[in-house]
Structures are given as structure tokens and as C-alpha cells.
Design brief:
Helix content is 38%, strand content 12%. The protein is built from 13 helices and nine strands. Residues 4-9, 11-34, 195-217, 387-395 and 411-417 have low confidence and may be disordered.
């Protein structure tokens, strides 16, 4: 009898262990969240609803398939009780179109925005595989500093483009930072632009509080900046910097800098208390990281980092993110590469010898061409000398004396012997000139004479 009791007790213990290890079934949608868009419903004439992915403050996320492309997509549908609120609808559509213009790989891609027949808007987005940072924290409790900085830098990359377009997220938290598994590796993507700004006032179970229902407050109390709690009209991108500092603190410590059991106490702590020092909780953390977090969590926005770019520069200077091993898709083909033999290197003496040989060859080439030019000039001078001497000789030729007709001697019959002869007038002398010699052209210099041959 006792053995049967022990056997029954052991069987009950075994069944309890099996049940506790089994995953919990997905919770059914509340009655207020039920939709007529069940599996098989065609949305917009091109999207077929396949199932349910999750629920939020103002809507439901459905798994669907694009019929024309046969590609998986996610559809976020606004609940019927918000469909009549034109302020919510117009803001949602405006911000969804703004996100659709973003090109950053760290922002979830919006593929389409439209309305259902009842007027409720819906957003078609890329369907992601993986989990968010909140699930990673629940699994690991805390994340190493280098890895946490790497995740935060990816979030900064996505926010830089969003802030450039004038979009302030205002609900940054680990649940909205999704670690998507892609063929290139794990890529962090920011979710819930726009729709998260109007989440309400219910408190989630646990120490980390999140507003998940429609109401007056905007955002999640654990991550909201003081000016966001006060609903300041001049809210800007520096509110997101506060949220990033809170997320970084939580990633490396496993807890938020401000924690409370109620929303009112949480607001009071954020508005009045100083954030704790990171070194008091994690003494091994770099002191520079504590300084960065303290700058992000300053009450006055003017005392924080003024842009996300400044925060990213400080984080990059603090620690280089680790290179995460990328998990690529397996093709089934194993590629092997043979080891390449190391190429022989040329020693320094050989290099110097090659340089000296090159210099000597260049000098010899220059000397050779100089000799060739001088040899071509000497025959040219020698061939010009005969023509010059001939012209000089022609200029030195003396013309012969002029020939004058002689006077006939007198005879005895005509004049006495002692009579003096009278000078006779004769014609002017005729000067005869030799024709100037014609200079012969210089003989052409042959090709051989030019080179002294």
C-alpha cells in the first residue's frame, strides 16, 4: 500500500515538471480586442490574414501574406473604439507615411498604409523573426557592457534618420527594440513609431511599468523624460536621449534607474530624484559609461546630449562594439580553400642593388645620347666651311687696270724736235669688271656624316 502511494506521488511530481516546462498557450484576445479579421480574411484585396502575432494599446498585430508577391507581412490594425478618433487616425497615418520614407536598416519598414471599410486604419510592415530586448533581458538578466553599447549604437543609427525627419519616438523601451534575425546577422530595428505615443495608463506586471492602454499619459513611465511627464509643449528629440540612457542602464544592470509600484510614485521619482550611479550597482563598469548615462538622465534637456549623434560619438569613443558572428543561411555546399604558400620576399640588399643598377643605366643612356648629338653637329660645321671661303675669295678679287688708248708719237715732218707735245684729250677710260663668281650650293650632308661615319 505504501509503495503504491510513493509511486503515485512520484508520478504526480513528474507530471508537474513536464507541465511547468511546456510553453504556455497564447492568451485569447479580450472581448474589446476581437476583430472580424480572422484567418483567411482578405484585407485591401491583396493581404490574406494568417494568424495573430500580438496586441498593443490601440490595436492588434496580425500575420498575413501578400497574395501577389507571396511574401509574409505583418498588419497592425487599429481597434474599432479608436477608429472614430480622427486625431488618433490622422496622426497615425501621417507618422506611418513618414516611417515609410526612412531608409535606415534599423527602423522597421512600412510597406503600405490604408483603411478598412469601417474607417479603421491599418499599417502593413515587414514581418520580423527574432525577439526584442525585453525578452533578452528576461532570459539573461543583464548584458555585457560591450554588447549593450553595440545594441544602443544601432538604435542611435535608426533615430538619427527619424529625428532628421522631425519624428520623435517618445516611447523607446526594450519592447520596442527588436533583434531581427536576418541573413546578414542580428539587426536591431526600432518598432512602434507613432502608435506608441498614445498608449494609456495600465501598469504591466513586474517592476518595469509600461502604459499599454489609451489615456492621458504618453509613453512608458520607466523611460519617460521629465518634460514628457509634464506634457511640455516644446518636447523634442532630447526626450528620446533620456529613454536611451535609461535603456542602457537597464541593459547592463538588469534594472531601471527609477522603479516604483505605481505610476504616481514613478512620476515623482523621475521628477525629483537623481539617478543612481552605475558604479554602485556594477563596480566593474567603466567610469566613462557612468558619465554618459548621467548626461542622458539630466532633468534639464539643455544639460543632456543635444543630439543622438553626440551620444553615438561618445559611445564609440568609449568602447568598440564587438564583432558579432553572423549566422548565414546554409546552402548545403561546403567550400574548402587550399592554403596559399607564402610568397618569397625580396631582401633589402637585392632591392638596393636593383636601384643602383637602374640609376647607372639611366646615366649611361644620357651620356650616350649626348655623344650622339655632338657627333651630328661636327660634320655639319665642316660642310659649311668651303662655301664661306669661296664667298670670301670672291669679295677679294681686284679688277684689272683700265686700258687707255696710247697717243701716237710725233714725226719730224709735222713738229720740230724741240716742240713740246700738247696733251691730247681722250675719252674716259673704260673699266672692265669681272663677273662675280656664282657660289655653288653646299653639298648635302649624308646620314653617315651626321654620325661621324
Amino acid at each position: 500500500m505504501l509503495s503504491w502511494a510513493l509511486l503515485l506521488l512520484r508520478t504526480q511530481q513528474l507530471l508537474l515538471r513536464i507541465i511547468t516546462k511546456m510553453p504556455l498557450p497564447s492568451a485569447p484576445l479580450p472581448q474589446s480586442d476581437r476583430f472580424a479579421l480572422g484567418p483567411g480574411t482578405i484585407v485591401g484585396g491583396k493581404y490574406r490574414v494568417d494568424g495573430f502575432l500580438g496586441t498593443g494599446g490601440m490595436g492588434v498585430v496580425l500575420s498575413a501574406t501578400h497574395l501577389e508577391l507571396d511574401a509574409p507581412v505583418a498588419i497592425k490594425v487599429v481597434r474599432d473604439d479608436f477608429a472614430a478618433n480622427e486625431a488618433v487616425v490622422s496622426r497615425l497615418l501621417f507618422e506611418a507615411r513618414a516611417v515609410a520614407r526612412m531608409q535606415s536598416a534599423h527602423v522597421v519598414r512600412v510597406l503600405d498604409v490604408a483603411r478598412l471599410p469601417n474607417g479603421a486604419p491599418y499599417i502593413v510592415m515587414e514581418k520580423l523573426r527574432g525577439g526584442d530586448l525585453a525578452a533578452l533581458l528576461e532570459q539573461r538578466a543583464a548584458i555585457p557592457v560591450a554588447e549593450a553599447i553595440g545594441y544602443l549604437l544601432q538604435a542611435c543609427e535608426g533615430l538619427i534618420e527619424a529625428h532628421g525627419l522631425g519624428i520623435v519616438h517618445r516611447d523607446l523601451k526594450p519592447e520596442n527594440l527588436f533583434l531581427a534575425a536576418t541573413p546578414e546577422g542580428i539587426v536591431l530595428k526600432i518598432l512602434d513609431f507613432g502608435i506608441s505615443k498614445d498608449l494609456g495608463t495600465a501598469i504591466r506586471e513586474g517592476s518595469r511599468t509600461t502604459l499599454t492602454k489609451g489615456g492621458a499619459a504618453v509613453g512608458s513611465p520607466s523611460y519617460m523624460a521629465p518634460e514628457q511627464i509634464r506634457a511640455a509643449p516644446n518636447l523634442d528629440a532630447r526626450a528620446d536621449i533620456w529613454s536611451l540612457g535609461t535603456i542602457l542602464f537597464e541593459l547592463v544592470t538588469g534594472r531601471c534607474p527609477f522603479e516604483a509600484d505605481t505610476v504616481a510614485v514613478m512620476y515623482q521619482k523621475v521628477l525629483t530624484e537623481n539617478p543612481p550611479s552605475l558604479l554602485d550597482i556594477l563596480p566593474s563598469a567603466p567610469s566613462e559609461l557612468n558619465t554618459i548615462i548621467q548626461l542622458c538622465l539630466q532633468k534639464d534637456p539643455d544639460d543632456r546630449f543635444q543630439t543622438v549623434q553626440e551620444l553615438a560619438i561618445a559611445l564609440r569613443g568609449l568602447s568598440r562594439p564587438p564583432v558579432v558572428e553572423r549566422q548565414r543561411l546554409q546552402s548545403g555546399i561546403e567550400l574548402t580553400a587550399e592554403a596559399r604558400a607564402e610568397e618569397p620576399r625580396v631582401s633589402l640588399p637585392v632591392k638596393l642593388g636593383l636601384v643602383a643598377t637602374t640609376v647607372l643605366l639611366a646615366a649611361a643612356s644620357v651620356a650616350f645620347w649626348q655623344l650622339q648629338i655632338r657627333g651630328a653637329e661636327q660634320p655639319a660645321k665642316a660642310s659649311s666651311r668651303p662655301a664661306l671661303s669661296a664667298s670670301v675669295r670672291a669679295s677679294n678679287v681686284v679688277a684689272p687696270a683700265p686700258i687707255i688708248n696710247p697717243i701716237p708719237a710725233p714725226t719730224s715732218d709735222q713738229e720740230p724736235k724741240d716742240a713740246k707735245p700738247e696733251p691730247s684729250v681722250s675719252a674716259p677710260p673704260v673699266v672692265r669688271r669681272w663677273p662675280a663668281p656664282v657660289a655653288k650650293p653646299a653639298a648635302p650632308v649624308s646620314a653617315g656624316a651626321r654620325y661621324g661615319l
